[in-house]
Amino acid sequence: MRHNLHEIDQSDAELVLVLAGDHIYKMDYRPMVEAHRATGAAVTVAVRTVPLAEASRMGICALDADGRIVDWEEKPAAPKSDLASMGVYVFTRTALHEWLVESRSDFGRDVIPAMLAGGAPVYGHRFDGYWRDVGTIEACWAANLDLVGLVPPLDLFDRSWLIHTRSEERSPAKMGPEGTARHSLISHGCIVNGTVQDSVLSPGVRVYEGALVRDSIVLLDSEIGPGAIVDTAIIDKFVHVGAGAIVGLGEDRGTPNVDEPDHLSTGITVVAERARIPSGARIGRNFLIGPSVVESDFAGLVVPSGSSVWRHDGSTPAPAATEG
Question: What CATH code is assigned to 2-133?
Answer without folding.
Answer: 3.90.550.10
